[in-house]
Structure to design on (294 residues):
């Protein structure tokens, strides 16, 4: 897949809107998202795939902004009260449906490579976490994902870990392929779950959590993380917003997460404003807040 844009593309990164809340009156029709770039990157937990309101919200964004392309990957919440396979199929169906009216402007990232232009590629997947053996019992008991009524249907530790292994293998394979065949290509990686235990990327109150590995995986030894071709890695899931430039690879690592505002989230863990990334040469940075006009 390709895009016609070749001049300093900009990417607005947002995750964890949780529009399925509050439960008594979901916010699909009331939440206002300021669009500030031609690429809107929704990195999971935007809403529930079973809810029609999610698709009404997404289509409204395409309708109101003709030059907008949405890149969407699943979080864990999208599949709540259905199987993961059913959630994926709902997203694929929506992408095909809106393509008839709006063109290929909704891209479902499900172990998907998307070429923005001849020099920049996006790799997107959920990146289910690697649950540590010492935390498996706690994670299975405490995370809603594993509740067969409220969480993901037909889902357990075995399925979770299998998906993790497939995600990491796919990321490494795609990065290696570009390293060998397209060494000048710049890579963006979008995931839902966190790929790093770096303290700058994690809320310190969760450092010693007995369910931490349900949210965070240390990929520091993996090619997909070590490659200097990866210029940006953005993710969600942890309800913690931050940005920093990693030493060594010089990639920008960031998250812009809303979380459960009004449901006990602390201010420092909530969405902290616009995060628009501009790809300009080897120096990728976060732009000042401004409204995007077409």
């Amino acid at each position: 897949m390709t895009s016609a844009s070749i001049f300093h593309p900009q990417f607005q990164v947002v995750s964890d809107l949780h529009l399925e809340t509050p439960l008594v009156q979901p916010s699909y029709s009331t939440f206002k998202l300021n669009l500030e770039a031609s690429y809107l990157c929704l990195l999971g937990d935007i809403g529930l795939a079973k809810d029609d309101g999610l698709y009404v919200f997404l289509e409204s964004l395409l309708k109101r902004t003709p030059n907008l392309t949405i890149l969407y990957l699943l979080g864990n919440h999208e599949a709540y009260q259905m199987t993961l396979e059913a959630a994926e199929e709902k997203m694929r169906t929506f992408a095909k449906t809106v393509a008839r009216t709006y063109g290929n402007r909704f891209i479902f990232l499900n172990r998907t490579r998307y070429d923005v232009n001849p020099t920049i590629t996006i790799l997107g997947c959920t990146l289910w976490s690697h649950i540590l053996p010492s935390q498996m019992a706690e994670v299975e008991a405490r995370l809603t994902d594993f509740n067969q009524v409220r969480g993901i249907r037909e889902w357990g530790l075995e399925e979770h870990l299998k998906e993790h292994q497939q995600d990491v293998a796919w990321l490494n394979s795609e990065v290696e392929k570009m390293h060998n065949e397209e060494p000048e290509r710049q890579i963006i990686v979008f995931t839902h779950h966190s790929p790093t235990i770096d303290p700058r990327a994690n809320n310190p109150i969760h450092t010693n959590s007995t369910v931490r590995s349900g949210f965070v995986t240390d990929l520091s030894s993996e090619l997909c993380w070590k490659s200097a071709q990866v210029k940006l890695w953005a993710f969600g899931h942890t309800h913690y917003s931050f940005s920093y430039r990693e030493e060594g690879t010089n990639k920008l690592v960031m998250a812009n997460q809303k979380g459960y505002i009004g449901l006990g989230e602390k201010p420092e863990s909530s969405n902290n404003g616009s995060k628009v990334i501009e790809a300009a040469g080897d120096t990728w940075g976060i732009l000042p807040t401004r409204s995007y006009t077409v």
Notes: The chain is about 25% helix and 20% strand. Residues 174 and 180 are 10 Å apart (CA to CA). The chain has a mean pLDDT of 92. The longest helix spans residues 157-181.
